[in-house]
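Researcher: I'm preparing a figure for a lab meeting and need a structural model of a single chain. I don't have an experimental structure, so a prediction will have to do for now. The sequence is pasted below. Please return the structure as tokens so I can convert it later.
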Amino acid sequence: MQPAEQLDGIIEIERLGSVVCVGRPVSGQAESEVSLFRVEPDGHPAVRTKVLFGRSSVNVIEIRSGLQPGDRVIVSDMSAYKGVDRVTLR
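Model: Understood. Here is the structure written out token by token.
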């Protein structure tokens, strides 16, 4: 390898099996509790739901409680809706 060449790689520290995880939200910190908007099964309203996070990586975060496999959540910044418990999706 020459000095000007770049190398990309992944360092795997641990591999977890049978965990529920989502894309890491803007406010996603490992081992914390946050409120996320979970999209209802019919796809229209999203309801604020308390979620307990576990371990995290750069892109995903483990869900310890508050969500089930298959639940859809909004992971973008929803701080503008701080006092709202339900939002309507269009």
